Amino acid sequence: MSELRKDPVVGRWVIILKSRGKRPLEPYIPTDSGRSTFCPFCYGNESKTPKEIMAVRPDGSSPNASGWKVRVVPHKYPLLQIEGELSKVGEGIYDKMNGVGAHEIIIETPEHGLRMEELSEDDIRDILIVFRERIVDLAKDKRFKYILIFKNHGMEAGDTVDHSNSQLIALPIIPDLIREQIEGAFEHYKLKDRCIFCDVINQELRENIRVVSENDNFVAIAPYASRFPFEVAIYPKKHCAFYENNGVNTYKSLANIVKDTLERLGIVLNNPPYNMILHTSPTSGSHNEYYHWHIEIMPKVTMVAGFEWGSGFHINPTSPEDAARYLREAK
């Protein structure tokens, strides 16, 4: 089992893989067409993955067989394991706990090689609703404090299989990044009795300088202090702290703007590798008044080097104003 160990200086938690043994998935082996020679996520290979947790099966087909549109399976080599107790212990000045959690793969389509933006809005909506269903289910387990969902697209972004998928990791602690967002949002709320995210959204919509696109329910923005070139954040216009607290129509609208944003990035940056991350409220506690769930999309077009690692600063060679303009003009 893995361990979570706490840095005694900065309080940062790290997952230590004590014995993993193998790569998490089959290695990527390109062919002349750029596709991998074997894919455990394709139709007919359902036996090559662990047994599915849930699936969208319009034809009513049996579990662990073909006939699915979206399929969720446990990660074959999980970072955290669902069995066991946290067993928090101290070793002198050091703190650690067992690597208890959950690690799942959301296989987004049976069609090999398709990018998410090539799927229909209805298909993307189904994926987004599966995200919701998994959060709702795992939040019932009181050991889990935060449910993180993310997508790595392309080898440079950390993907190892040429088949569109996202990952879910249920954590027994709240990640530092989320804690910092919540604390910053709470400070703004104490001062002004308003959500900082709502204030940002309202100002960006008024100024319309860094807005990439919008629909009735969502807005895509190049953040004012973007860390990376062409970074985009997607916010619900209506205040909401929890991703899972939305109706089906909302996910349809979200699918529309996710697809649109990825298409724009593909046009401007020639289908770049990227990371897409869902930020939502922790499973426990009340953050309804001041936190605001959102999605971040970060194309991998620059490298993080020594200055960034040594200082904590990010260097962005493309201003968010220019990035938003390029993306607006793409379609």
Explain what this protein looks like in three dimensions.
The chain is α+β, with helices and mostly antiparallel strands and 331 residues long. It folds into 2 domains: 3-175, HIT family, subunit A (2-Layer Sandwich); 177-328, 2-Layer Sandwich (HIT family, subunit A), CATH 3.30.428.10. The protein is 25% helix and 21% strand. The chain has 6 helices and 14 strands. The chain has helices at 121-138, 176-192, 196-207, 248-269, 306-311, 320-328, and strands at 3-6, 13-16, 54-56, 70-74, 89-91, 94-98, 102-107, 146-153, 165-171, 211-214, 218-221, 232-236, 274-279, 294-299. Strands 3-4-7-9-8-13-14-12-11-10 form a 10-stranded antiparallel β-sheet, with helices on both faces. The N and C termini lie far apart (48 Å).
Give the topology, please.
Blueprint: E1 3-6, E2 13-16, E3 54-56, E4 70-74, E5 89-91, E6 94-98, E7 102-107, H1 121-138, E8 146-153, E9 165-171, H2 176-192, H3 196-207, E10 211-214, E11 218-221, E12 232-236, H4 248-269, E13 274-279, E14 294-299, H5 306-311, H6 320-328
Antiparallel strand pairs: 1-2, 1-6, 3-4, 4-7, 5-6, 7-9, 8-9, 8-13, 10-11, 11-12, 12-14, 13-14
Helix pairs in contact: 1-4
